[in-house]
Amino acid sequence: MTDVTMRIWRGDSTGGDFQDYPMTPNEGEVVLDVIHRIQATAAPDLACRWNCKAGKCGSCSAEINGKPGLMCMTRMQDLPGGTVTVTPMKAFPIIRDLVTDVSFNYAMAEKVPAFLPPPMPEGGYRMFQQDVERGQEFRKCIECFMCQDVCHVIRDHEENKAHYAGPRFFIRYAELEMHPLDTNDRRELVREVMGLGYCNITKCCTEVCPEHIHITDNAIIPLKERVVDADYDPIAWLGRKILRRTKRSATEAAVQPAP
Amino acid sequence: MAVVESSTKVVLGGTRGGPDVSTLRKDRWWLQPVITTSVLTAFVIYSTWAAFQNKNYYVGAIFHRDLVSPFYSPCLAASCPTGSTAGFILHGWALSPALIILIFPLGFRLTCYYYRRSYYRAFWWSPPACAVADSHASYSGETRFPLIMQNAHRYFFYAGLVFNTLLTYDAIRAFHQPGLGWGVTVGTVVLSVNAVLLWLYSLSCHACRHLCGGGSNSFAAHPLRYRFWKFLTPLNAKHMNFAWSSLVFVALTDVYVRLVASGALTDFKLF
């Protein structure tokens, strides 16, 4: 393969800059392989997070030539020659070099009200295959947080992190909302507190998902439609009045069930 | 409003890594917004021009045809030519009859989840492409007026179904050629393809998928809704294709009817 210049962001919270590392990638190498060779040769103090090297742990998320990608799943031969830039995920504070502090996501994960099943019926809980399959897609998430990184709501507007859960957690909310055995109603919660309305469905989360989860079509838009049922559809409102159905407030929905 | 106290707080701020530039992307990310802007702008200009023309939208008995432009159907004004009206006349309307009805298909497309993605990217630059900085200092998404009105999409979808039914009726009616009997012309094919594409666009709509079955929490308990949902899901995956093809074809249909009605083109009989 032809020689490339690996232009890697080096720095920490006090500042940083690009450093160039001329490399000759071997056939079949991925970006993470080249990063490891740089660590082994030119820059032993280069920090990067990695674990499985198989696209299943979600650790090595970075931005390669400006687009979020897993370093272990991006082949060097698929990148245009010349210079390859590698930068840390832009939406999160930097710790060092390619390592970022993703604790925003852990805070949002803690806010998701857990699964709330009804009391165990005689014979146990039962779910049918078609209902299992629907939620299974969302369970493929490897929590690489690239969908969070690319989402312009927080990537370009830091202040929105205070009231926006982000696509990774919208698929979790969608999975729980669609679960036939879940008794909670999180529609007001995702609208009022988790900022579903901030999403303008530009689908970047879907584009970067390494597990090819249809985040927008199968999770965010269905959630938005459920919020319309709860808040914006006068016919649905009338139906609730006639059938005497209530919706759960954000505060009620946010209560975590006892372990 | 914080309703859940979690032990890990959301910490705002902190130094971000990478250079302070709008994007480091090297590919032609600008191409898609340019194409979207060009096509949508061309459609808006053409449809506005066509809506204000108020002529050449109906090919009637004088040509032994019964073709009406989708921009003018249903034709509800008193000025509509004989044969083009839908039975109901809005008396006192002096402007082009297209202006009465176009708000409904326009609203359906304007609030469509796919078009929202496209025009937020192309016109608002919010963001122009993935991992390219959006061009606004602050951002409230669809949480406030006027963008909160996007939640009315399903009502435009209902209206769209009515229009699809009427345009299907127009297409079927076009097979009857006054004075000649029944037959197939290029015009009938054009109107039929237009109706089929509009149906595919409407049925692949995300609101339709939700209303037909997606809103259910248990497919096992609602097998009929599940079958609808299962049928619509592959269509929904092609919503973008149907959105563009139906948009372009509805304009082409108007062009065709307009050319035939003005006498610039002959509507050839196929059989």
How would you sum up this structure, described in words?
The complex is a heterodimer of chains A (259) and B (271). Chain A is of the alpha+beta class and 259 residues long. Chain A has two domains: 4-100, Roll (Ubiquitin-like (UB roll)), CATH 3.10.20.30; 103-253, Alpha-helical ferredoxin (Fumarate Reductase Iron-sulfur Protein, Chain B, domain 2, Orthogonal Bundle), CATH 1.10.1060. Helices cover 36% and strands 14% of the residues of chain A. In chain A, the strands form two sheets. Chain A has a five-stranded mixed sheet. A two-stranded antiparallel ribbon of chain A has the order 6-7. In chain A, helix 6 (167-178) crosses helix 9. In chain B, strands 1-2 form a two-stranded antiparallel sheet. Chain B has a two-stranded parallel sheet with strand order 3-4. In chain B, strands 5-6 form a two-stranded antiparallel sheet. The longest helix of chain B is centred in the first third of the chain and has 23 residues, at 31-53. Helix content of chain B is 48%, strand content 6%. Chain B is built from nine helices and six strands. Chains A and B meet through strand 1, strand 2, helix 2, helix 3 and helix 5 of A and helix 4, helix 7 and helix 8 of B.
Short description:
With 259 residues, chain A is an alpha+beta fold.
Order of helices and strands of chain A: EEHEEEEEHHHHHHHHHH
* Uncertain stretches of 5 or more adjacent residues of chain B: none
Biggest beta-sheet profile of chain A: 5 strands, mixed
- What is the count of structural domains of chain A? 2
Described by the principal axes of the CA atoms, the overall outline of chain A is elongated
- Number of helices, where a helix is a run of at least 4 consecutive DSSP H or I residues of chain B: 9
Radius of gyration of chain A: 22 Å
Which chain pair shows the most residues in contact?
A-B, 88 and 61 residues
Structure classification of chain B? mainly alpha
% residues in beta strands of chain B: 5-15%
Strand order of the largest sheet of chain B: 1-2
- Helical residue percent of chain A? 25-40%
Counting copies of identical and different chains, the oligomeric state is heterodimer
Radius of gyration of chain B: 23 Å
Question: Strand percentage of chain A, roughly?
Answer: 5-15%
Per DSSP E runs of 2 or more residues, the count of β-strands of chain A stands at: 7
Helix content of chain B: 40-55%
Uncertain parts of chain A: none
User: Considering the protein shown, what is the CATH homologous superfamily of the largest domain in chain A?
Assistant: Alpha-helical ferredoxin
Mean pLDDT of chain B: 93
